Amino acid sequence: MTAPRLEIDLDKIEHNARSLVERLARSGIGVTGVTKATLGEAKIASALLRAGVSGLGDSHIDNLEAMRLARIASTMTLIRTPMLSQADRVVKHADVSFNSELEIIAALSSAAQKAEKTHGVVLMVELGDLREGIMPGDVLDAVAATRCFPKIIFKGIGTNLGCLRGISPDEKNMAALSDLADLIDTKFGPVTDIVSGGNSANINWALSGAKTGRINNLRLGESILFGCETLHRQPIAGLHGDAITLIAEVIEAKTKPSLPWGEVAQNAFGETSPSTDRGPISQAILAIGRQDTDPSGLTPPPGIEIIGSGSDHLILNTGRVHISVGDEISFRVNYSALLRAATSPFVARVFTAPA
Ligand SMILES: *Cc1c(COP(=O)(O)O)cnc(C)c1O
Prior knowledge:
The chain is of the alpha/beta class.
C-alpha cells in the first residue's frame, strides 16, 4: 500500500464525536465539529455530521470551500477572524465568521451587500489567553456597531482559551462570558443566540458538572480526533485514542555505530546533537521527514526509539525489533504531527472503517 499514509478510522471518529455530542447535550451545549487539522476532509466532516454535531467550523476559508464543493450540507463557520482580502470568499462560503475587528466586519458587510446575502457574526471576547478577542469592556459598543452594519447579523459571542498561553477554561471565566451574554441581551433584547465557550480545552470544565450558564456551544477538533482533553492531554473515558495512525516505510536497515565520526558542526536544521556511545545499534531509516510530519509528535511502537530526523528522513533505533527494508512502521500521532501530515502532499490518506 502507498506510504507514507495516515490511516483514519472513521467509525472511531464518529463514535468519539457522538459520545461528546451526547454528554455535552446534557448541559445544553451543542458541538461545532472542527475540521482544520485534516484540511476540511469531507469524509471526516460527514462522520462528524452523522454523529450529530450542530455545524462545522474551520479556520481556513479554503477548507470550508472544499467542503462545500464536496456537497457537505451543514452550517459552516469560519473560526478565525477573516482576512480583509478574503471578505468576498468568506461571505460566499461561510454562514458565520468569528470576528474581533470592526474594520473587517465592515468589509464583510460590503461583500454581503454585493452578494445580496446576509452573514452571521460572532464576536470573540478576550478572557485571558491573549490570542483573539475584544476586551470585555469594549463588547457592548462592538455589539452596537455590529448590529448597524447592513446584511450583518449579530449571532453571539465566543471566546478561545488554552491555545496560546494555556489559560484553563474554568467556572470564573466561563461565568464572565455568560454574564456578558446577559448584559448584551439586557441592553439590546434577546439577540445573543450563540455563546461559544471554547475548544477541546473546555472539556474538563464542561463535563465536570459545573454550571454552564449561557454557554451553548463548544468547537471541538482534537478531542474528537484523539479522544483526549487538551489541558493535560488525558484520555476522555469511553473515547478511542487510536483513531488515527501514521505509517511510513523503511528504506534502509543496518547495524551502525551509535556515535558519528568526523568533526561535529550544525546539522541541516542548525542543531548540534550530543551523542553517547552505546556501541553498535540497529538503525532504520523511514521515508518520511519534517516536511511530512512533526517527528517530536510521533510515538513509535514499543522497543523502537526515534533518534533523529531530516526534511525527508526519520531515523530509528530499532533495538531488538527485527526490521527489514520495505517494512512499514506505524506511529501514534499528536495534533502537531497530524496537522503537518494532513497538510503534506506526500502523505496519503486511507480510511479504514469496517463496512
Ligand atoms: C482550532 C480551533 C478550535 C478547535 O480546537 P481543538 O483544540 O482542536 O478542539 C476551536 N476554536 C478555534 C477558534 C480554533 O482556532
